[in-house]
Inverse folding.
């Protein structure tokens, strides 16, 4: 019996909006990446494959509002990268640009033929979460005609009582009363304007911002961007029961996990797991990807092994993280080396990866078979 491998178990994928800002319009396509394996769980590398991608509405088994096919080529790690809705696609049905992203939920269904044809044997469906709905912002570009004000807060405020006569009286002010101007309503109208300004200020939505050391988003904040709204958190305790674990899973190959910087660890982790295969609880990237945290009734499950830069940001804020962790049922960092998701990008890279001492702060590389500590991170 031929084995059918679903995307949820055999294909690691990421979906994001393409950052095209030159035209000041919402992009009309989505980036999609997947690692392709055959029925024997072997990577399909440097091979042209056939793919059919469907955007499904309502449920995972709902009607497809858009279907396209593409023939991408996998890289040395079995990774394909395509843009859904791009000119490289052959449209089977629907129009990607007319999808009403507010009328969700939506799911992405992928069907793959490893032989490059249309005999699709690898199938999977995954729900599109918050990121693709940024496409709904394009509706602001096409608003036309009048807009009827239905805001109950406005209609109940003092602004609704300002009349044309009130406005005329305000316009007639000259700095002194000459006797022929009626200013009897000025005091009342001035108070009405003040009340309206206060109401408008109260109606402005509150934006939540974060600081390093906050216990939020499933862990401890250790970096935020310039807005204070987005950043990175680390787990409140070490993974793998607080003991060391090896970087690799028995395979001395180059996983191409060389990306560094903020947010780079997520893609590194995907590449490592795609390369190192099953038994994901036996190595550093696997235990991070399998980690979950439940805080205030919310489950956070999108954790990964940090990049060198992300690991160093944690070290720089070690004292603050330790204090928040211990006060929220967690534990501080050990005075030992922790794994990053970066392997050595060199001729000797197959057997070595980067770690950082949380005693001295130094970053060094060593054998992937070494057992170092692990602390998972996630982006928010």
């Amino acid at each position: 019996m031929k084995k059918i491998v679903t995307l949820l178990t055999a294909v690691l994928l990421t979906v994001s909006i393409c950052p095209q800002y030159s035209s000041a319009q919402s992009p009309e396509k989505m980036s999609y990446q997947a690692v392709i394996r055959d029925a024997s769980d072997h990577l399909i590398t440097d091979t042209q494959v056939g793919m059919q991608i469907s955007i499904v509405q309502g449920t995972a088994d709902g009607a497809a509002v858009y279907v396209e096919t593409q023939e991408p080529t996998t890289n040395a790690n079995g990774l394909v990268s395509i843009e859904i809705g791009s000119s490289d696609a052959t449209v089977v049905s629907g129009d990607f640009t007319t999808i009403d992203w507010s009328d969700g939920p939506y799911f992405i269904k992928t069907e793959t033929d490893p032989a490059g044809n249309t005999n699709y044997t690898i199938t999977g469906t995954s729900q599109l979460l918050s990121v693709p709905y940024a496409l709904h912002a394009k509706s602001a570009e096409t608003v036309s005609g009048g807009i009827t004000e239905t805001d109950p807060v406005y209609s109940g405020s003092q602004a609704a009582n300002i009349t044309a006569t009130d406005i005329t009286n305000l316009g007639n002010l000259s700095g002194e009363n000459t006797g022929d101007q009626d200013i009897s309503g000025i005091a009342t109208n001035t108070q009405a304007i003040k009340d309206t300004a206060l109401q408008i200020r109260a109606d402005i939505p509150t934006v939540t911002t974060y600081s390093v050391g906050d216990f939020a988003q499933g862990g401890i904040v250790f970096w935020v961007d310039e807005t204070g709204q987005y950043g990175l958190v680390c787990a409140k305790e070490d993974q793998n029961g607080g003991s060391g674990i090896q970087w690799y899973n028995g395979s001395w190959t180059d996983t191409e996990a060389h990306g560094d910087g903020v947010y780079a660890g997520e893609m590194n982790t995907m590449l490592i797991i795609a390369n190192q295969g099953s038994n994901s609880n036996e190595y550093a990237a696997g235990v991070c990807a399998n980690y979950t945290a439940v805080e205030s009734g919310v489950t956070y499950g999108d954790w990964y092994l940090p990049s060198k830069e992300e690991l160093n940001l944690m070290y720089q804020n070690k004292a603050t993280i330790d204090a928040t962790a211990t006060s929220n049922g967690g534990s501080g960092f050990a005075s030992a080396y922790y794994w990053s998701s970066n392997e050595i990008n060199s001729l000797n890279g197959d057997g070595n990866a980067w770690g950082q001492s949380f005693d001295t702060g130094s970053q060094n590389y060593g054998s992937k078979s070494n057992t170092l500590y692990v602390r998972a991170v996630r982006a928010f």
